[in-house]
Amino acid sequence: xxxxxERLLLREFSPDDFEGVHEYASDYENVKHMAFGxxxxxxxxxxxEVQCREEREAIPRMHYNIAVEEALLHKVIGGISxxxxxxxxxxxLGVIISRRxxxxxxxxxxxxxxxxxxxxxxGLHRVHAVVDVxxxxxxxxxxxxxxxxxxxxxxxxxxxxxxxxxxxxxxxxAVLREEWEARK
Length: 184
Ligand SMILES: CC(C)(COP(=O)(O)OP(=O)(O)OC[C@H]1O[C@@H](n2cnc3c(N)ncnc32)[C@H](O)[C@@H]1OP(=O)(O)O)[C@@H](O)C(=O)NCCC(=O)NCCS
Hints:
By secondary structure, this protein is α+β, with helices and mostly antiparallel strands. The chain contains six helices and eight strands. It has helices spanning 18-25, 28-31, 41-57, 106-120, 136-145, 177-183, and strands at 2-4, 8-12, 63-70, 75-84, 90-97, 126-132, 148-158, 167-176. An eight-stranded mixed beta sheet has the order 1-2-3-4-5-6-8-7, with helices on both faces. Helix 1 (18-25) packs across helix 3. Bound molecules: coenzyme A. The site of coenzyme A has 23 residues, from strand 5, helix 4, strand 6 and helix 5.
């Protein structure tokens, strides 16, 4: 898997991406909305050497973790995941961009490329995401890309240990293939 956008290469992860991945995966502020981290060096190595390889080799493939490489820097600055449902026609998206490169339009550009890929190459019928209601940048990006807010899911998210509340609300966002094509 390899495709390009204006500034990015979107490709499989490799163990050589350790430095770029560990920069964001080990940073609490960067991962606090994610289901993983903050990573130890061993967590990041295991992710790159074991998890990504197992996902690539699985038949049928159900999980895509896509490295977001800044083409001029030759460095991974983030990642996008798509996890397929059992019918392999709907995928849930996750995205992270290193704080060092925040606010430069990278996640918008990468998501646009990955959603194109999901409909064009993976043949999906629908793509969706769930977002913490307290993550305004992510909500703004999904709205800007044309995903529909399908509602607020009460206490669907599980908080990290030590939070005031054990669960938090999430918005569901989705787009169908025909809606995505119509916007282009
Ligand atoms: C959320 C995240 C992916 C955004 O990545 P990014 O590359 O900085 O995003 P972009 O630069 O493409 O776009 C950021 C947009 O959010 C907007 N934004 C930033 N802070 C905002 C806020 N507090 N309220 C509303 N919009 C905000 C920016 O103005 C920009 O929109 P614009 O281009 O229309 O001006 C990144 O900050 C990140 O990895 N966060 C931690 C992980 C995470 O929360 N992932 C989502 C889990 S579902």
